[in-house]
Structure formats: structure tokens, C-alpha cells
């Protein structure tokens, strides 16, 4: 009856207004109402329909719970904005049956799924269940008179590591599912995505909500069995095994659910901590998973080119969530990221207040992103994608075992390629020009990569960190400028691409040009010196290693050195 009452109110409202969305025997979809209400400034219409949506869903859900799970409880923890979705977590011993039968009954009544009709999704066996007591091997969280329970974390070191690794893989998989084909092709070259891509390729998203609901229901039944096993287990090692398996099953189930987080981290960060205001502790790894998944949602929402400002404002919810998680990961944010956090925060405040956002905020965002104030969703999407890849790579490659793997791989690359690259560079040199090659020592590289991790600034590609192979070309000053240009052009024709160009002839501590080139997906360094600047560099080397700066006078400066300014668009120009 409550649903009927709200439907009548909604019908009267549409009849009395100039709204063209008449019933005509068919209830309009939620997204159509949202779009119409916002376009015509009719928020009250949206509130009426929202009340109708809530009443319909609750009436169907109550009927199902009475039949299949009288002791189940429900929690709706999403945003309270009029435009928000209406998602529900069902806790209880047979919540899989509640979800399954709700989806069946709703489809029978409306002809489409609740996700398509009302932007409503049901989730069974949530990581945080509502109840009066916590079973064995569960933790309890209390908020006022309410009690919530969740499966404990594994206690053994091995199982902790395994569980963390598994959840990282699911977070990365969520990121993958939010990308377009070109972006997916880009990440296929990154080893840390291998495990996630294997699942993605083996079980590609269907795009069919009915088919996904069936798979989701099947996995919920497995989750139910896992929960039962955990509550009965009294052996610590066996319990740890079961907890890891349970978390895997919940994540796998969520892979087939609609618009939800896959891993534990973002669920605990956003749903439990932010939306339900529960006092939960998250690890740094869980915050990183939240950053990864919310960045994925951000990228996914930046997909419209015709409504740029509306798209930016809508996606700011996920941007703020991602950036808040990022601040908890202990990575050292660059000034670039700090500025982005402030800009996105101001945009999100307007979203929450539902007031029109001044153009100056959008212009500030895009001036920061692309140096142009023009709103461009694809420009922002590309920017966020690249930043996210660098941050994700940096985080995972800053772990001690990862640092050692980077160094080992870099030394192997140097040993395997030093002769070939020496030959390719030598082909570009003239008789009076000298080539020197150097493979850095393992300890030196370990110190360098570790230092980069400690002082990491988001946005710096991690692949720069362990360039074990360095070449130095010494050129007479009178020919220096033209020969640098000619040599680099020649190397480009041999598929040695310039990734970074630094003109450091005005530096206090170093004179020369440093170039990073890419060969076989790995960077190596090429320095250009005059005889005098090379001599000065070698004299400074011991002081440099000890962190001593030297305010030397400029070494013999080549004529017309400014001609090299802005030779490459990605140049880090220190000279000017």
C-alpha cells in the first residue's frame, strides 16, 4: 500500500506539472526521472519518485524475507542525495535466497531488473553483517544500539600475506573492468596486472545483468558455505585457510554483481567507515585497494564528451574517495597531486550542495591538467589514468622484495644489452667523439631505488628508478649542440625513443645533458658532455655520493646551448 500511495503522489505531481513523462500504463525508469528532473529543475519530482522506488523495493523485499529468511536484516548505506542509487545489503543465514528470489520477483513484475528500473542492487552476505551477536571467528563493531559483525583477519603471517595479495588482485581487476580497450592494452605490459587479467580474459564481463545476477547468486551460495565453515572451525591454521577462501569467494561474487567494490579495502573504507560511520581500522594495503577501485570508478564515469561539466561533477564523488584513500597510503604526494586534491575537493562540495558550480572551478581543474581551461572529459580521463598507473606501480614496487626484483631485472637488462646498445650508439659517433659505458653496482641501485621509494612523488614513472645502464658521449664544445641533435635523431631512427630530456647546463651541481631512452620496454641513460664538463663531473662524483653540493663555476659552456631548449616536449628544462 505504501508503494501505491507514493505512486499516486508521483502521478498527481506529473499531471499537475508540465512534465512530459506521463505514465501511460508504464512506470518510467529512475535514470529518466533523474535526467528530466535535473534538466528542468524539478527536484521535488525526483523526491516523490524516490519515495515510490523505496516503497516498492521494501515491499517486495519484506515479502521475500518473510518467506525465505525471517531472521535476515537489511542495511542501506549509500548516499542520501536525491539523485543517488538505492542499494541494500542483506545479512542473514539465507541472504542468498533473498537476493535470488527478489531478482526473480522484480523481473516478473516490471519486465526488467531492479538495476535497470530503479538503479537498485541487492547484495547478500556483506562483509559487514548486522545482528545481535558475532559467531565464532567473527569480530564485533558496535554503534549505539546496533551491532555489526565481520569475519576476522587471518592471524598467521603467511595467510596475512596471501590474503593481502589476493585482495590486491581483485582491486586491480576492478580497475581493469573500468577501462576501455586502448587502456587495457596499455596495462597488459605491466606484470602486476597479470593475475587480474587472467581472470578478466577467462571470465570477461558479459554486460548482461540477468546472466550476471545468476552467477552472483551461485557464488553467494558458496559464500554461505564458507561462512558456515568459519563459524565451526576451532583450529587456527584451518580457520586462516577458510578466511582467505571466504574473502576470495566474496570478491569473486562481487565481480558478477552490479556497481560494487570487489575487494575488502574500499568496502571498509567507503561503506563501513564513511557511509555507516563505524569505527573500523584499515591497513595501508586496504587503503591502496580503495584508491585503486575508486580511481577505476572515476575513469569509468569520465566517458561522456557532450556533457563535460555534469560528468566532472558526477565523477568527483569517486575522485574524492580515491584521493582520500591515497593520502593514507604513506606515499609522498607531489605538489601536483596536492593541488589536484584541493581542486577536486571544491568541485565535490558543490556536488553535495547541489548548487551550480562556477566555471572558474572547472577552468582551474583543466588548467592544472592540460594547461587549457577548456572542459574536456577525455583529457581528464587520460590524465587520471596515467597518474594512477604511476602511483599503483610505485606502491607495489616499493615493497622490499619488489625493490630487489627491480634491481635484479635492471642489472640483467644492462648485462644483456650493453654490447648491442654500445654498438648502436657508436654508429652515430664521429672519430673524435668518445663513448663510455657503465653498469651500476647492485648496492648502488638498491640505495637509489629505496631512496626513490621513501621520497616518492606521485606521477614519476617507477621505471625511471633503476636505470642500471649508463652511456656517456664526450663531444668537443664547438660541435656540441648540433651533434647532440644529430645523435638523438639517429638513435630515434634505430627505435631508441627519447623518454626524458634534461638540459642541465645552468645547474649549480652538474653540467651536461642527460637523456633517458627506451629500448625493449626498459630505460637506459645517455649523457652528453664536453671534455671539461666530464672532468668536472668525475671530480664531483665522490662528493655527490656523500650528498655534498658544489657551487662550481660553469664548465666550458658550448656555444648556442640555448638552441637545445624545448628540443623535446617532455624535456625537464633546467637551463632556463
How much beta, percentage-wise? 5-15%
Main sheet attributes: strand count, strand direction, barrel closure = 6 strands, mixed
Query: What do the pLDDT scores average to?
Result: 83
Text of the CATH class of the largest domain: Alpha Beta
What is the number of helical segments per DSSP (H or I, 4+ residues)? 20
Q: Output the CATH topology of the largest domain.
A: Beta Polymerase, domain 2
Number of distinct beta strands: 12
Helix content: 55-70%
CATH architecture of the largest domain: 2-Layer Sandwich
Distance between the termini: 74 Å
* Overall outline: elongated
Q: Report the uncertain regions.
A: 1-8, 12-25, 457-463, 544-555, 568-576
Number of domains: 4
Please state the CA-atom Rg, rounded to the nearest Å: 29 Å
Given the helix and strand composition, which structural class is it? alpha/beta
Q: What is the spatial order of strands in the main beta sheet?
A: 7-8-11-10-9-12
